[in-house]
Amino acid sequence: MTQGSQALGGGGPLAASREAAPAPSAVQLRRTFGRDWATAWPFLAPCLLVIVGLIAYPFFSAILLSFQTKLVGSPGVWVGFQNYYELLYGRDLSGIFRQSVIVSAIFVTATQDIIVKGTPVEQAVKSAHESLMEIFKARGAL
Asked: Is this prediction's pTM over 0.85?
């Protein structure tokens, strides 16, 4: 333990147990992950390579490309945030971009409202079904 932790009152049995925490042994790993956890890695490796190759690499490559001005067949020129500035404040695309953001926000909000509350038709069918169930229960048919 360091002198600073002793001066701050960091000593004691709890602090000593945190500092001396052993690395997980093979028995603990086997108990946590199951007996075949080491055998699973050769089977998972091809899947992880496909995920990295088809998702992670294009994702980070697109982010890098967004900071460049590039034409097909020529090397990219680093422009930093200039592309984003043009998108937000430029005269060519800023109005279209703002309109698409507004439309996207409207549709996402409407879609979430429909998912959470259900469509009006769905609500009408549910209430009709509940009414019929109450009628049949009252008559003793159910």
From this structure: no
